[in-house]
Every structure is written in C-alpha cells, then in structure tokens.
Amino acid sequence: MRRGNNRTARRLPRPRVQRQSTGFTLLEVLLTTALIALLSGLFVVGTTTLLRNRPQTAEEVVRAAIALSRRYAVENYREVRLSYDSKAKTFHASTIDGQRDFPIELGEEIQIDFLVAQKGNAMLLGGELVETTTIPYVSFYPDGTCSAFRVQWRSGPTPPHIVAIDPWTCAPVLEAAK
Fold this sequence. Notes:
There is one protein chain. This protein is of the alpha+beta class. The protein has a domain at 58-165: 3-Layer(bab) Sandwich (minor pseudopilin epsh fold), CATH 3.55.40. Helices cover 26% and strands 26% of the residues. The strands form 3 sheets. The protein has a 4-stranded antiparallel sheet. A 4-stranded antiparallel sheet has the order 7-4-9-10, covered by helices on one side. Strand 1 and strand 2 (90-94) form a beta hairpin.
C-alpha cells in the first residue's frame, strides 16, 4: 500500500486557541471612575463637616476678635477699642457710635488679658509665671494699625500663652527659633 497524496482523507480539526483580553472595557473604566468620584465627594463633605463642628481654641478666638476689630475700624473709618469681659465671656468693641459684642463659644474656662507692649510685672500663680500689668483695652485705628500690645490667655490647666501683636499689621509677632 502506498502512502502518498491522499486528498480524500479527512483532516482532524485543530483546537482553537482563544485570545485573552488584556485591557479593560470602557464600561469598567467609567464605573471605576464614578466610584472613585463618589468616594472622594463623601470624604470631602465628611472632612468639612468635622472641621466646621470642632470647637474653637482660645488662640483662634483671640485672633478672630483682633481681626474683626481691625476690619471694623478700617471699614467704618473709626477708632475701635477692644476689651474683654471675663465674667460675661465677651469681647466688647466700642466706637464713638456705640458698642458691638463678640461672645466667646468655648466649652472651657478662659481668661484673656491685654498687656503693655514691654514685659511688665509678673507673678508666680499656680507654678506658672503670669503677667500682672494689664491694660483695660487696645485700640485699632482707621488706617489699619493698632496700639502696641501683647495678649495673654489661659484656658484650663495649660500654662498661659503670651503673644506680642505688631502695631503696624495687628498680626502676631513670630518668635525667634530657640
């Protein structure tokens, strides 16, 4: 028997090799992007809510009162005298036209004192050195400047903080690095 060209013989079918896809479909990409955007939005909203609802610190309250008094003096072209009433827990900003109060919303007890620009008398109180030379008010002028002063606040068991205020900008003076 001769083997040769047998055209009538049937060939066996070859198994098909399937190609595996290596990319993502457009639908998968869009769904992933939408999910990331949704989670990012929830994160931003949640963070904003947490930051808005947190209580203010004593330093934030003092800085806000100084900024409001300075802005009121500049906008209304009036001298503003800022004082603090520790019993009522309120800042008083008074002008020749009247008085405006800024109540403090702190959960803890706070004591705020305005001090002369140069270091004055100090007393040891509860193991902490506390300035005793206070002034009744500080002035903010229509040109955006203020009287030279320092502010001291004490809240809770923490030691008192004293910050000097620059009379030209009414901003806290940065301390030199120690």
